[in-house]
Design a protein that fits this description.
Number of strands: 12
Subcellular location: Cell inner membrane; Membrane
InterPro entries: Cell_div_FtsQ/DivIB_C, FtsQ, FtsQ_C_sf, POTRA, POTRA_FtsQ_type
Shape: elongated
CATH superfamily of one domain: Cell division protein FtsQ/DivIB
Pfam families: FtsQ_DivIB_C (PF03799), POTRA_1 (PF08478)
Helix content: 25-40%
CATH topology of one domain: Rossmann fold
Distance between the termini: 102 Å
Subunit structure: Part of a complex composed of FtsB, FtsL and FtsQ.
Structural class: alpha/beta
Order of helices and strands: HHEHHHEEEEEEHEEEHEE
Function: Essential cell division protein. May link together the upstream cell division proteins, which are predominantly cytoplasmic, with the downstream cell division proteins, which are predominantly periplasmic. May control correct divisome assembly.
């Protein structure tokens, strides 16, 4: 009996050792790179601003660790270091595959001179941003970024169907709003009741536009009960109600 028990214990000891050595090796990364290499890299991305070559080049040095020792956080960090990459999902699939989903920054507008605003409302900087076409220009204090984006969104709704297009929204340090239209017209809204003032102007704009005055050079809505229009052709004047005392 004793001999049989000893043999069983010895057999179990050998089995556990044989199992434990590879497991220890995997955990320490000693065998992982050679015995369980990453052979396949599967990438899902839009490839609008980031190329497949950039993604593979950023990930390639990490793959030498092998399947078990590969640190997914390191992979994500390497990809997040690429311009235009906003978020990365990474996972390993047995026995030899790394799967990546790369989400790119989607530009919504320019902010100031060098930065871009993503559609998620975050600021980011990339080389060649000045080459992008068709983005509105937004500006203001950095801590009021969300306010400027929200105001721009509301302006787009107000201008819908008016025949006018907003290309710039600026908020001064004093809290005054100014718009620039695609025609080059500047619109001064002031600090208070900016959207109400804009709505009042857009209500009468169809009548002004039907005249022969051309394109306004500037529109000043900082009046209590009216507004002032300066036309590009100084000789042409359109009737616009103005108060004697401009508002803030």
């Amino acid at each position: 009996m004793k001999g049989g028990v000893l043999l069983k214990l010895l057999a179990w000891g050998i089995a556990l050792t044989l199992i434990g050595l590879p497991v220890a090796g995997v955990l320490t990364g000693r065998f992982a790179a050679h015995s369980w290499p990453i052979r396949q890299l599967q990438v899902s991305a839009e490839y609008a601003y980031v190329s497949a070559e950039q993604i593979r080049a950023a990930v390639a040095p990490k793959l030498d660790a092998g399947f078990f020792a590969l640190d997914l956080d390191d992979v994500r960090a390497a990809l997040l270091g690429l311009p235009w990459v906003a978020r990365v999902d990474a996972r390993k699939r047995w026995p030899d595959t790394l799967e990546l989903t790369v989400y790119e920054q989607l530009p919504y507008a320019r902010w100031g001179e060098k930065q871009l605003i993503s559609r998620a409302g975050t600021l980011f900087t990339v080389a060649g941003a000045d080459q992008l076409q068709g983005l509105p220009q937004l500006s203001g204090p950095d801590d009021q970024l969300a306010d400027v984006v929200a105001f721009h969104t509301r302006c787009l709704r107000q201008f819908s169907g008016s025949g006018l297009a907003v290309t710039e929204v600026a908020l001064s340090s004093r809290g005054a709003w100014r718009l620039t239209l695609a025609s080059g017209t500047t619109v001064e809204l002031g600090r208070e009741a900016a959207e109400q003032r804009l709505g009042r102007f857009l209500d009468v704009w169809p009548r002004l536009a039907s005249g022969s005055n051309g394109v306004p050079a500037s529109i000043d809505l900082r009046y209590e009960n009216g507004f002032a229009v300066r036309w590009a052709d100084a000789a042409a004047r359109a009737p616009a109600a103005t108060s004697m005392q401009p508002g803030a």
